[in-house]
Amino acid sequence: MERVDKNNYYLDIAETVIERGTCLRRNFGAIIVKHDEIVSTGYSGAPRGRKNCSDLGFCTREKLNIPRGERYELCRSVHAEANCIISAARRDTIGATLYLAGRDVKTGELVSNACCCAMCKRMVINAGIEKVIVRNTQTEYTTYMVNDWIENDDSLSGKFGY
Question: What is the CA radius of gyration of the chain?
Fold first, then answer.
């Protein structure tokens, strides 16, 4: 039996966190890891006490046919990355790695070419997270160095790279 590498091990855990998600469109799971220990987890879902889209039976963005990466202000959910950061102390996020995996609710397929939205990038930067590793397939992933997001400030160009 071949042993899974560390990045895929943590991505597998992030993928398990997806199962708590309540979005009717795409669910994401995130975990923050520092010094080989899981600091926190987060998934897509409405703020505490509010009804989730899965409870309501509809997604406003889906109803309005809004493309992926646009008009997040209409979304009821707090993103997985944000929930993960909210659940962690900053001292534990500085220099850490955030692992992110997503699934399309309708197809059950992994979300390919995913990355943090503009708001989540800002939170990742402020949390002091060093890198974000995003699952593309069951064994392949993309690594984003957060310092690149700082140096190549996409908010100045209008290119947000969803």
Answer: 15
